[in-house]
């Protein structure tokens, strides 16, 4: 991400937790419900198995429930009917849980309006120092991953960009209306969200995370205007990126959607790396065009088509597109081989491993 390479580019896939959800039995013999009970040693073993199967160059971590919650909850499995329950030992209650659906649930957005005033913002987003959060135990999973893989893998955490997070407090309709009618409330909300995530970043740095994936959605050229993006989104992302840099970690800014009029603005906030979706939904994002705009000022993540090409292309077609992207990456050397979207449910573990092996072979063939 800093000096650049002429060969042997890193290879990753984004959103490995989605990959695990959809390919659990292909990767591990552990029961699926450990993701609900948060059995951290077992989850670390699952990550080790995933590394064995795919041989990618990073391990993704996330926040976990507090130690108090983990100590008070356990799993009960009824042999007859194979029903699984999450039991709260302190309350003496339990609730039935079900395995997450392969492919996820059908996307339905419910506009929950949690915030209508600054007082609502203060109530919804509690402010706590990073050391208090660490003591609570919500970084214990990250700590275990750093201890297990930190010497050989890049450990990456994920956070939402502040305006993208605001949609979850105001809904899509409410956020877009307030951008026009109540911009001061939007700014107050994204400011509060930013402060919250700055403390999370400080905790991640404290426990030894290498980099942070900043996900930004519903902020593209076909969703909000460039002036609104520059006012309500970009300054807050810039603050997160600056803090990540000052803490000694790396930032990867993953921007979803049409970036045609704002890629230069994104580069100007100095993320260490930029990751973009593949061309789809009526917009085009060709990696050559991206490279021409970025000009080596940030590391570029590849955006191989995960939806159509990866699961359906022949080996020769997959190799040709990987070669094209890697050749683009060689110009400045600041390049990571990656996908534009999460791996789809229909894409087998074997196919993803083939993608990794082809990518490694091609990246080793340096020009000259």
Question: Your description of this structure?
Answer:
With 368 residues, the protein is an alpha/beta fold. It has one domain: TIM Barrel (Alpha-Beta Barrel). It is 47% helix and 13% strand. The protein is built from 16 helices and 10 strands. It is globular. The model has no long low-confidence stretch (mean pLDDT 95).
Produce a short descriptive summary:
This protein is 47% helix and 13% strand. It is α/β, with parallel strands linked by helices and 368 residues long.
Question: What distinguishing features does this structure have?
Answer:
3-stranded antiparallel β-sheet; single chain; TIM Barrel; globular
Topology:
Layout lengths: L15 H7 L1 H4 L6 H4 L2 H15 L3 E3 L6 H6 E6 L4 E6 L4 E5 L20 H7 L5 H7 L3 H10 L4 E7 L1 H20 L1 H25 L3 E6 L9 H21 L3 E6 L7 H6 L4 E4 L10 H8 L4 E3 L7 H4 L2 H15 L5 E2 L12 H15 L5
Parallel strand pairs: 1-5, 5-6, 6-7, 7-8, 8-9, 9-10
Antiparallel strand pairs: 2-3, 3-4
3D shape: globular
Task: Report the CATH topology name.
Answer: TIM Barrel
CATH architecture level-2 label: Alpha-Beta Barrel
Stretches with pLDDT under 50, minimum 5 residues? none
The separation of the N and C termini measures 22 Å
| CATH top level class name | Alpha Beta
Total beta strands: 10
Beta-strand portion reads: 5-15%
- Let me know the average pLDDT: 95
Helix content: 40-55%
Q: Count the helices. How many?
A: 16
Strand numbers in spatial order across the main sheet = 1-5-6-7-8-9-10
H-E order: HHHHEHEEEHHHEHHEHEHEHEHHEH
- Overall structural class, as computed from helix and strand content, comes to alpha/beta
What does the main sheet amount to? Answer: 7 strands, parallel
Number of domains: 1
Radius of gyration in whole Å, from Cα?
A: 21 Å
């Amino acid at each position: 991400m800093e000096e650049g390479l002429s060969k042997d580019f890193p290879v990753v896939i984004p959103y490995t937790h989605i990959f695990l959800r959809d390919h659990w039995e292909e990767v591990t013999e552990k029961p699926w419900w450990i993701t609900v009970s948060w059995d951290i040693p077992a989850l670390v073993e699952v990550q080790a198995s995933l590394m064995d199967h795919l041989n990618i160059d990073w391990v993704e971590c996330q926040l976990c429930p507090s130690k108090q919650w983990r100590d008070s909850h356990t799993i009960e499995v009824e042999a007859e009917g194979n029903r699984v329950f999450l039991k709260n030992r302190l309350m003496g209650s339990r609730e039935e849980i079900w395995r997450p659906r392969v492919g996820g649930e059908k996307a339905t957005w419910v506009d929950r309006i949690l915030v209508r005033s600054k007082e609502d913002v203060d109530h919804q987003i509690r402010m706590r120092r990073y050391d208090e959060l660490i003591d609570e135990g919500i970084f214990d999973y990250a700590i275990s991953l750093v201890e297990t893989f930190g010497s050989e893998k890049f450990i990456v955490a994920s956070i939402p960009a502040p305006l993208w997070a605001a949609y979850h407090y105001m809904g899509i309709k409410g956020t877009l209306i307030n951008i026009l009618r109540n911009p001061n409330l939007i700014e107050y909300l994204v400011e509060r969200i930013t402060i919250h995530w700055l403390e999370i970043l400080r905790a991640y740095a404290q426990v030894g995370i290498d980099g942070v994936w900043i996900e930004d959605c519903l902020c593209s050229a076909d969703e909000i205007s460039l002036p609104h993006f520059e006012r309500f989104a970009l300054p807050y992302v810039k603050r997160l990126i600056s803090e990540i840099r000052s803490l000694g970690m790396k930032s990867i800014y993953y921007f979803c959607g049409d970036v045609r009029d704002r890629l230069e603005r994104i580069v100007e906030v100095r993320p260490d790396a930029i990751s973009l979706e593949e061309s789809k939904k009526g917009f085009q994002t060709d990696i050559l065009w991206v490279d021409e705009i970025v000009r080596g000022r940030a590391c570029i993540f590849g955006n191989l088509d995960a939806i159509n090409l990866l699961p359906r292309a022949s080996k020769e077609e997959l190799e040709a597109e990987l070669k094209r992207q890697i050749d683009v990456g060689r110009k400045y050397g600041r390049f990571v081989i990656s996908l534009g979207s999460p791996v789809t449910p229909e894409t087998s573990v074997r196919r993803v491993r083939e993608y990794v092996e082809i990518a490694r072979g091609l990246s080793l063939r340096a020009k000259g």
